[in-house]
């Protein structure tokens, strides 16, 4: 497979905050239509990686390519226009806006706007709960509803690839299952997916391949088909101790 | 107190309220979008009036007042955009942006006030009214220009509200104010909308100055008193709420008119500050503000 065919290529990327590089030259790729997981403990650079890819923070060194095109000179806005959509972690969105208004607003770029009706229809079918609450303000939503809205907002941006940052953070098992089903449905259309998660069962149920991140570096790449199990991954991180 | 007096107080209050609404809405818009107070908002109002005077007055270019309105607003929009670029934008990533921009916008205020004095001199000027003559309103005779202010202000406030509520750019501006990073992630050009917000606010200030410039006399500090009132109103109405700001504008306007009648023009302004303090003691979030932002 040549690089140009990949949805996303991150090559030796360095980024961070203030004087400190959280990412110490990280490299990952997401193939066409591939679902890739990013797993690792808190504070080890997963969110920083997504922030750097979507230019919420600057890329200091290295290169990021989306569908073969380098993102180096582009702004956050231009990256969204190209269809690389980052659904941020615990995103409180726009507290005083209503659900429907937020979804309509999210189709902000020209390309997304032209697909607005179709995508809105899709989102409201995927998350009927959002349709029921369409006049409710974002700040009144529960954690699960807010997560659904965040993903819905991502879909309204007309994504060609989605990066989801801990979509199940703090949710009940039942809600996690609901979200897993929705994410599965979204990516079944061969939408490339980069999924950041701390719930290993959740990642493994959704991805084809997974990176283990530790201190801003990839320490291992796992193909799900090769059958690495849960305990083995936990051992790698926690040296055989009980992982919470 | 006769009905005539009541009517006179009410009408004069509505005129004041309309002026305050035009001023305070721009200030409030910048606050809720960028999280800063623009202390040069008053001098932008002054500048708009002076530019309009130069274009339309016989002592200047002597053109039609409509040209004065257009050039005045356009010039102030230009200054507003330049201001955003020079004294606000460099500090967007600074966590002390609120305090820093208090200083930088105050500096712009002083600079422009002195500049206006240098260019136009200290001599009093007055704009030609857009609407000449007098009209009768609620049993009180006022100038047609004041009537124009009473009519224009609510129309513009409704238009501004509709723009923010339903238009793509307007919604974008609200989104940026509520969560700039979430706005970036859906492809909103945050810094572009900051510029749009500044331009819109500057246009409102210029228009206020031009409308008021034929009712009051123009001096380089013409905008100082309206700025202070607008600041009080934005806080009083509940920071960041356009509806609250507009409601507070009319409330303060009418109250001020009543206070002027009861205790005179000398103490009325300070009484309004006393009132503000009392309100903030009991409702720190302002009259119409929400408890948590």
Commentary on this structure:
The complex is a heterodimer of chains A (244) and B (293). Chain A has 244 residues and is α/β, with parallel strands linked by helices. Chain A folds into two domains: 1-82 and 191-244, P-loop containing nucleotide triphosphate hydrolases (Rossmann fold), CATH 3.40.50; 84-159, no CATH class. Chain A has ten helices and ten strands. In chain A, the strands form two sheets. A six-stranded mixed sheet of chain A has the order 6-7-8-3-9-10, with helices on both faces. Chain A has a four-stranded antiparallel sheet with strand order 2-1-4-5, with helices on one face. Chain B is mostly helical and 293 residues long. Chain B has a single domain (3-282), classed as ABC transporter involved in vitamin B12 uptake, BtuC. In chain B, 71% of the residues lie in helices and 3% in strands. Chain B has helices at 3-34, 41-56, 65-88, 97-120, 144-166, 168-178, 180-185, 190-212, 224-236, 242-263, 268-282, and strands at residues 134-137, 140-143. In chain B, strands 1-2 form a two-stranded antiparallel sheet. The longest helix of chain B is centred in the N-terminal third of the chain and has 32 residues, at 3-34. The N and C termini of chain B lie far apart (43 Å). Classes of the chains: A alpha/beta (244), B mainly alpha (293). The A-B interface holds A 54, 56, 75-77, 80-81, 85-88, 91-97, 101, 104-106, 108-109, 112-113, 153, 156-157 and B 168, 171-172, 174-175, 178-179, 181-189. Chain B: InterPro entries: ABC_transp_permease, BCAA_transport_permease. Chain B: Keywords: Amino-acid transport, Cell membrane, Membrane, Transmembrane, Transmembrane helix, Transport.
